[in-house]
Amino acid sequence: MPKQNGLFVGGVDGGGTTFKCCISTVEGEILRSERFVTERPKDTIDACADFFARCAKDGQPAEAIGIACFGPLDIDPQSANYGSILNTPKPGWSGFNVRNELAHGAGLPVVVDTDVNGALAAEMAWGAARGAKSAVYVTVGTGIGAGIFANGDFLGRPTHPEFGHIRVTRHRDDIYAGACSFHGDCLEGLASAPAVEARFGPPALMAADHPGWEIVACYLAQACISLTLTVRPEKIVLGGGLLLAPGLIDHIREQYAAMLNGYLDMPTDAVAQLIVLPGLGDNAGLLGGAQLALKRLAGE
Amino acid sequence: MPKQNGLFVGGVDGGGTTFKCCISTVEGEILRSERFVTERPKDTIDACADFFARCAKDGQPAEAIGIACFGPLDIDPQSANYGSILNTPKPGWSGFNVRNELAHGAGLPVVVDTDVNGALAAEMAWGAARGAKSAVYVTVGTGIGAGIFANGDFLGRPTHPEFGHIRVTRHRDDIYAGACSFHGDCLEGLASAPAVEARFGPPALMAADHPGWEIVACYLAQACISLTLTVRPEKIVLGGGLLLAPGLIDHIREQYAAMLNGYLDMPTDAVAQLIVLPGLGDNAGLLGGAQLALKRLAGE
């Protein structure tokens, strides 16, 4: 018998490949979830709305829904296009307003933010950045992006950071031109999953002692250094598919410390506490949506 | 006859070479100022206290004093060492508490922050970043540092950014090893005044068409790109001695746009409005101190 007491919120992890939906308690307990292949936008959102309608019928009505969504995305609540997917190669999605469509279909208040802002909100509430006043969530996968929280809100309002495209210093053994269609050898161009695969083959098949990991770690360590020197966050959570590689986080921490070269007087255990893996794993996006909904209900 | 109406605040621009003091109105009008060579810490602060005592006697009493101070510096109001200069090569200054000493000497509330946070506060109140909700002040001189304001406060609390030490991509014609004793070829190691002088001679003697400016602009453009992609500030104010070079700001804007390569869809005039020179010139530090005092009086 489903849990029926207390307040429930809906979370949506809107990805380019799958949309996941859940009902969560205010404590971040996922009571029920489903996933749908990301197809035509209207069909995808209809499937989400239908999920929340069935949950309500079963005694688990969401008070509000949050979508942690792929982008580019208009996340400015003051904008006429708040909730719209911006220019994207995904057929049919450019200009589609995921928020309005779901609000209409589900008959509920819906908020939307970037997938990384959502994941960060969840990690700060229930995961690896719990209790931190400032934190960053970096995803390293098909692309590289970051959600950054400081001084009580996400950075980059009314838009959002585009952290994947910062410049980095080349690793001395790396002659790869870079995979970014805009910038060639920016961070994303050198350290995203496609950039790794182009040089070393599929990341999942690379042995833990493959020398390519040192090169990847060199760039991701620079990303962490840049975040530290700019924002001084209490936590840097490194997520995304590439961070599933065993030991990569240790390489990153080592190179971070080596490159800072004692500048901030940070002992080894301080680095290990600063640069961490996600605490919520696959559920960061879903719980990110739920946390966005909770923040909305709390008036934040 | 001196202005005697209204509220006055004291501003101190605490530099490694000179300390400047002023009495300012709440509108940022400097009514009176003096400068002292930075000598032994006690003598320097005594000279400041004496200035404010004379101003009070002349009918211009400061309600509070703000110090925009050189560092490294403890700027955490919760810290037992709030207002202390940290480890510095300047003889006698390490561990000296500029705030406590001036508060005691002047008998007034004194607040202290970094020189760049102070300059940024002044530029946001009365200068080139007036009206911006988020902004950055970068100083490029003997070192490179940044004050960053977003979401209602400076970034990096309870410490401050160390932005000068981010990694950058090398200019293809630049083989200089870098001047930073910690990191060699970080931003400061490649683009600070000593790094420029080491390659091209004194910056003040470099002609406007010296090819070295393209190299300097390449690194400072990367700094602006990094700030944009991380913080999305409304204004990036570039100050410090090096920015006195005629035309350097234009080189930086051009390379910023060229390196972004259309990624953020920012027209030329948007770049010119984003990356700007200081509006307060030499007075940014003094008015920074005054603005810090005003924020304190306003309870911020």
UniProtKB/TrEMBL annotation, chains A, B:
Keywords: Magnesium, Metal-binding, Zinc. The keyword Magnesium applies. It comes from the Bacteria. Its cofactor is Mg(2+). CDD domains: ASKHA_NBD_ROK_BsFRK-like. One of its GO terms (molecular function) is metal ion binding. It catalyses: D-fructose + ATP = D-fructose 6-phosphate + ADP + H(+). InterPro entries: ATPase_NBD, Carb_Metab_Reg_Kinase/Isom, ROK. Its EC number is 2.7.1.4. This is fructokinase. It comes from Hyphomonas chukchiensis.
